[in-house]
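Our consortium's second objective concerns turning raw sequence data into structural hypotheses that experimental partners can test. To show how far this objective has progressed, the report includes one record in full. It was chosen at random from the queue rather than selected for favorable results. The single chain below, 335 residues long, was entered without modification.
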Amino acid sequence: MNRRQMLRAAIAPAVVLGVGTGCSEPEPKPGKVQVVDPGDVTSSPSAASASPTLPKGPLTGAPVSTPAAATRQAVAVPLRVSPATTPAGLDAADLVYAEFAEADTLHLTAVFHSKDAAKIGPVTEIRPVDIRSLTVLRPFVGYNGGPTGFLTQFENSDLDGVTPDNDSKVFSGGYTSTAALLKAAPKGGQPPPAPIDHTTDGEALATRDLAPATELTVTVSGGPPMVWRYDQAESVWAGRIGKVTVTAASVIVLTMEYRTLDVRNPSPRSLPSANVFGEGAVLAVSGPNSAKGRWRKPGLPLVCTLADTGGDLLRPQPGNAWVIYAPTTAKVSVK
């Protein structure tokens, strides 16, 4: 029995993708599916036989840039992006998690594993969403400080990282690189598990309610809409982030509650924060299709699971992915 059959046998129509973090919050009520860490896919026979020379990367399901990249630790960087920002390095990220932040800005958590980036940034402060999204992936994190409470949460997590105050050589003018981060990381870091169940045999994104799609829009009050359009010639989804156009094999929108965090040090302010634990609606686009379903992430050390409306796993095409944390007040539409 394969993974999809096992899941369907265990659940009814609604269920779940994976992301994770570290604030003290009530544990969500257990659902019908026991979600477990899938482990290191780089050691699986299917990953090893994906290519004569290059194995598949656990974050993308696609061949990595070099054989050594499959077994190395991932690195991650939080970025703050406004419409006037020109972010660097996003085109090399395997995964990008996007939280809607203050005003019209985005707080991005970019994860790099299968490819290298010579310039990543602008690097910003650590936030709870970074910890929740990254802990299950075990990356080394490059970040630029943060409120006292957020720094404490990071120190109490299982993550390790570096800031300009710790090692200024890792950063230059507010930017960093995968090479600098990997050099600064402690020895013995492990590669990430697979957070997304990519298709390996040409199967469709979903077994039910699959629909053709050419445009995905996420509209949040107080900022411009985020629009992604399918480029049929390149078989990718393209969107505008700041002043640059980025592409992704898949875009996955998770609808969830946001709450306001009041921080005092080093300066008093209120920040929106996505609660990535629990479950909710998902809308995914991959290739020329879209599908709806449910996501579920029970807690910090567990991957987030995605399922279609029939309870089968959503299986995006191999490649990089953007995971958008949309507040429940957002309008998410596809056509």
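The partners drew two points from this record. The chain has one domain: 3-334. Residues 1-51 have pLDDT under 50 and may be disordered. Both points have been shared with the crystallography group to help prioritize constructs.
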